[in-house]
Design a protein that fits this description.
This protein is an alpha/beta fold and about 350 residues long. The chain has 5 helices and 38 strands. Among the domains are: about 90 residues, MurE/MurF, N-terminal domain (Udp-n-acetylmuramoylalanyl-d-glutamate--2,6- Diaminopimelate Ligase, Chain: A, domain 1); about 150 residues, Hexapeptide repeat proteins (UDP N-Acetylglucosamine Acyltransferase, domain 1, 3 Solenoid), CATH 2.160.10.
Length: about 350
């Protein structure tokens, strides 16, 4: 429970007179919110829904008010919602359990006393885990891994040897960090596997979605930058680097040694060839097939990926193809008639 004054300070808003001590017990969508739960509106089309809501307090855009509601005005309601949601997130232990009786933890592992660990987890020699981490059930943390403070490692995560995880990192269930890269040398009709000697480094405040796989580097590290957000079912190949505060949606695949710049946005199912460089602040559309690098601030989409506006013109033209084919057939008929008429006149 938080006072409205506390919430207003968090989102840099002003509290209307007399409302500073109003108690807020949670945050919900307008339809489900109760009188003591805060809600938000990011689009005016939802005004009727918010007006009918039982919620007494609404986060709104600067200069906007809703009758009979306490309105906290902000520059971006969606950002304010994200900040408030973190206040009410459940950060209690995953399990009420004495992990020492059901886990295997090597005697050489250095684990801060504040760390909580779910049943069935295995922690190998040389592992170091800093304060306030929450580790779920049946996780595997292999030898010599380093995990910073305030991390959340969900049940079923595998962190392979020598991986380095920063502070406040979230890794969701089923993710595999530090798997072998897809490296093979072809000799005649067979392949010779190339082992990876590098590791994976995930910097502070990164989020790794469920069932992601991040391969270790061949010699150097595969690096996930500070603040990177990776959705579920994403594959990051060996020696890829992803710049800080970039984000990618589900089912993206990035081939080996590709460099993704800072603040890059990648939509779902985009695929990248290896050994290319994507410039800072680039936008890449859904299902794009990226076969070459980009300059900073590029906007590309399509297969193969091209400039966004070019692809929109191509797609618009493609929608006219059925009629164009009809027109061409008609023109061919008319040309044939003209030919026959010319031949007759001669």
């Amino acid at each position: 429970m938080y006072t409205l004054q506390k919430i207003a300070e968090l989102i840099e808003s002003a509290v209307p007179d007399g409302a500073a001590d109003f108690a807020i017990t949670g945050i919900k969508n307008p339809e489900a919110a109760t009188e003591s739960e805060i809600t938000f509106i990011s689009d005016t089309k939802y005004i009727p829904v918010v007006e009918k809501s039982k919620s007494s307090v609404v986060i709104v855009k600067n200069g906007f008010l809703i009758q009979n509601k306490i309105c906290l005005q902000v520059k971006d309601p969606y950002v304010a919602y994200a900040k408030i949601a973190q206040l009410f997130e459940d950060t209690t232990d995953f399990f009420e359990h004495d992990y020492t009786t059901t886990c295997f933890i090597d005697k050489s592992a250095q684990i801060h006393p504040s760390v909580t660990i779910g049943p069935g987890t295995v922690i190998a020699k040389g592992v170091k885990i800093a304060e306030n981490c929450r580790i779920g059930a049946n996780c595997v943390i292999e030898k010599n891994c380093l995990i910073g403070s305030d991390c959340r490692i969900d049940s079923g995560v595998i962190i392979r040897w020598n991986s380095v995880i920063g502070n406040r990192v979230i890794i969701q269930s089923g993710a595999v960090i530090g798997s072998d890269g897809f490296g093979n040398a072809r000799q005649g009709d067979t392949f010779i596997r190339i082992p990876g000697f590098g590791n994976v480094v995930i910097e502070d405040d990164a989020d790794i979605g469920a069932n992601c796989t991040i391969d270790r580097g061949n010699f150097d590290a595969t690096k996930i930058g500070r603040g990177v957000k990776i959705d579920n079912l994403v594959h990051i190949a060996h020696n890829v680097t992803i710049g800080e505060n970039s984000a990618m949606a589900a089912q993206v695949g990035i081939s080996g040694s590709t460099h993704i710049g800072k603040r890059v946005i990648i939509a779902g199912q985009a695929g990248f060839v290896g050994h290319i460089e994507i410039g800072d602040d680039t936008f890449i559309g859904a299902k794009a097939g990226v076969s070459k690098g980009t300059e900073p601030k590029a906007q590309i989409t399509g297969y193969p990926a091209r400039d966004l506006m070019t692809m929109r013109r191509i797609e618009a033209a493609q929608s006219n193809l059925p009629q164009l084919l009809k027109d061409i057939k008609q023109l061919k008929k008319e040309i044939e008639i003209l030919k026959q008429n010319v031949m007759k006149s001669n």
